[in-house]
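Sequence in, structure out.
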Amino acid sequence: MSTLTKGISVIFFFSVCGIALFAIEPSEHLTVKEVVITGNGKISSSEIIKRSGIRAGTTSMLFPASKAKQGILENPWVSEVRVKKLLHGKIKIEIYENEPFCIVAREGVEPHYINAEGRELGTAEPSQGLDFPVISSKEKISPSLMLQAIEILNLSKSSSALGWSEISEIVVEENFGIKLLTLDRRFVTFGKNNMKSKWHKVERIIVHSRKNNLVEKDIDISSGDVGVIGYDS
């Protein structure tokens, strides 16, 4: 074997050894030293770390960011998550949380929050706030009726006739549909379907009543065509 060939063999040998050594003892830049979490308020940092599968002292090459994100997103409070691998062994996890839209109260089930899309969040707690309209039912609410109840609450946000802050409860029954109860104990029966059209008719009824110095006790707009109105005597 020539001197040149021997030299190349030696260089190759030490190169392989170097790669093997790197594989056994990863660079400190690839070792997880710190996990920084931002944006979380309703889910603890310790739970986020557990769900991510990230462990201090391990190599960041051993976990894909997509798998860490998937684990964190299994918590219903999390709407979006970003995982970034930074220099010097730092991992940054940015959390974007769902906001409670209202509270669902159903017999046999603890009251819980849902977001504006109807996704169940955590149990309703005083520390998270309880000043939300309530969607109530004696039975499990079908997705269709849940979305109709949410639609009514969304319509109330921009209404001057019957605003969000006036609504106490929305009662949902699978057979009869939706009935709204205000804080001052007025009832509006919507029934099922065509909520936007029915809502605008209810607004016109309330505005007309106020112009005539009348206060409606209940409104039944379930037929979709004619509103049946009861007034306080």
